[in-house]
Amino acid sequence: MTAPAKTSVPRVFAARLAGLPVFDPVGDPVGRCRDVVVAWRPANQPPRVLGLVVEVQRRPIFVAIGRVTTLDSGQVVLSSGTVSLRRYAQRPGEVLVLGEMLDRQVTVRATGVTVTVVDAAMESTRLRDWNLTKVAVREGRRRGNLHTYDFGEVSGLSQPETNQGAANLLAAFEKLRPADLAEMLHDLSAKRRAEVAAALDDDALADVLEELPEDDQVEILAGLETERAADVLEAMDPDDAADLLGELSTEEQERLLELMEPEEADPVRRLLVYADDTAGGIMTSQPVILPPDATVAEALARIRHPDLTPSLAAQVYVARPPFETPTGRYLGIVFFQRLLREQPGTLVGGIVDNDIAPLDPDASLRRVTRQLATYNLVALPVVDEGGRLLGAVSVDDVLDHTLPDDWRDRDDDDG
Fold first, then answer.
1. Is the C-alpha dihedral spanning 241, 244, 247, 248 positive or negative?
2. Per DSSP, what are the bridge partners of residue 149?
3. 3-state DSSP call for residue 73?
4. Positive or negative torsion for Cα 232, 176, 218, 91
5. Per-residue pLDDT, 263
6. 126-130, 256-260, 347-351, 361-365: range with lowest mean pLDDT
7. Which of 202, 222, 224 is nearest to 214 (CA)?
C-alpha cells in the first residue's frame, strides 16, 4: 500500500499549496500545484481528498493523493516521477477547493452568521485517507475577523453559489504570470471565469485575455458592462484588441470602439481593415521605434522595458517622424546584438540595417512565415506603399495564428 503523504504540521491549508513546486523522489521538478480535488460525501461528512491538480508544461494534470509522499508548506514530493500528461477534466461530483470553494458565502450553523470562505484545511486519517476537515472564514469585509470551523459547522458549501467573489482565489495565485493565470481561468466554469474577471483590474484582465482562447475572450468580454469592456480593450495591445473585436459583429465592434478613447481606438481601427491571415492583420502597431539621431544607449534603454516581449525587444525600428504608426519614412532595423557591440553614444541611424526587405500589409501568413525562416528572424517590419512603418510581425504573432484553436486542450504532441 502506498504510504500516505507526510507533513510536519497537523493539517495543511489548501491555499498554501497554490504554486508550490512538485518534485519526483530524486528531487527533479515535475510541475507546480494548482488546486486540490475533493469529492462530496453524504450527511455532512468531510469531503474526501482525491488528489492534486498539478501544472506540467502549461497543462493541468491530476495526481492522486495516494501518490504524494511529502506535503508541506514548501514542497510536494511524489512517490514516482512518472505521471500521466492527460489534461485534467473535472468529473461530476468533484470540487476544486481553490477554484470553487474560496470566496463562497456560507452560514455558521450555531449562530446563523454569514461568512466568506478564505481557505480550507485537509488532514490525514488513520486509514491513510485525506479529508477536508476545516474551513477558514472571514466575518464581514476584507478586514473582518478570521475563524476556523469544522466542516460540519458551516452550511452552504455544497449549494450553488449565485454571487461568489474571487478575491481570495486571486490572493492564492497572486504571483502567477498572466499566461499561467489564463491557463487556470480556462479550466474554470463559465460562472467562475466571470467572477474572476470581475475581480481583476482592467490591466490585469487585459493581460489575461491576451493569453486566452478566442471563445473564452468573447465569453468574458460579453459578460462585462459595456463601458468596462471598452476600458479593458484600451488596456490590451492593439493587435490583440483587434483580434478580439474581429470575433464580434460589426455593430458590436463599432459600439465598443466608440466608447474607447480615440487615441486607443484609432490603431485598432487601422488593424481591423486587414484580413486576419495577412501581415497587417497579425502585426502589432507598437514596436520600438526610434529616430535616426537616437543613441545606442537610448535604444538599449527602450528594449529593457519589462512589458516588451522578447521578440519585440530583439530589434528597434528606425524611421523619420512622426514616430507613432504609421510613421514617417521607414529607414531600417537595428538588431539587439548590433546594439551590444557599439559604443553607447553611437547614433542608430549610422548602424541601421536596410537589407531586410519589409513586408507589405497584405502579405499572406505563408509569406510572413517563409521570410522569418529565410532570414532567421523573430520579427519583421510591415511597411505601406508610401514607405511608412505600420508595425511589426513577430514569431509569436505567427504562432498564435498557425496553431489550431484548441492547442491548449490537446493531449497529443503532433498535429
1. negative
2. 135
3. coil
4. negative
5. 93
6. 126-130
7. 222
- The pLDDT confidence band at residue 414, using thresholds 50, 70 and 90, is very low
Query: If you average pLDDT over residues 143-164, what whole number do you get?
Result: 82
Signed CA dihedral, 149, 154, 156, 162: sign only:
negative
Nearest to 128 by CA among 309, 278, 6, 281: 6
The domain 201-273 is placed in CATH, from the list 2.60.40.3450, 1.25.60.10, 2.60.40.2470, 3.40.640.10, at 1.25.60.10
Residue 167 · residue 142 · CB < 8 Å: yes
pLDDT tops 80 at residue 335: yes
Residue type, 142: R
What are 71's strand-pairing partners?
76
- Alpha-carbon gap, residue 175 to 44, rounded angstroms: 34
Query: What CA–CA distance (Å, rounded) separates 307 from 47?
Result: 43
* Strand, coil or helix: 319: strand
Strands 389-394 and 114-124, by their bridges, are unpaired
The structural domains of the chain, with segments of one domain joined by +, span 1-177, 201-273, 289-401
Same fold? 201-273, 289-401: no
- Rounded CA gap, 137 and 167, in Å? 13
Model pLDDT for residues 279-324, shown as the tens digit of each residue: 999 999 999 999 999 999 999 999 999 889 899 999 999 999 999 9
- Tell whether the torsion through CA atoms of 214, 207, 86 and 102 is positive or negative: negative
Greatest CA separation found in the chain?
78
Distance CA 415, CA 412 (A): 8
Give 364's DSSP letter. Answer: B
- Asked if 79 and 57 touch (Cβ cutoff 8 Å), the reply is no
| CA dist., res. 137 & res. 298, Å (int) | 52
Give the Cα-Cα-Cα angle 132, 40, 173 (nearest 5 degrees): 55
Taking the C-alpha atoms of residue 49 and residue 315, their distance in angstroms, rounded to an integer, is 50
Distance of alpha carbon 223 from alpha carbon 230, whole angstroms: 12
Concatenating the DSSP letter of every residue in 215-253 gives HHHHHHHHTS-HHHHHHHHHHS-HHHHHHHHTTS-HHHH
Interhelix angle 238-245/250-259, nearest 10 degrees: 140
pLDDT score recorded for residue 412: 53
Overall fold of domain 289-401: CBS-domain (3.10.580)
Closest among 236, 212, 234, 252 to 284, alpha carbons compared: 236
Q: What is the grid cell recorded at 322?
A: 512622426
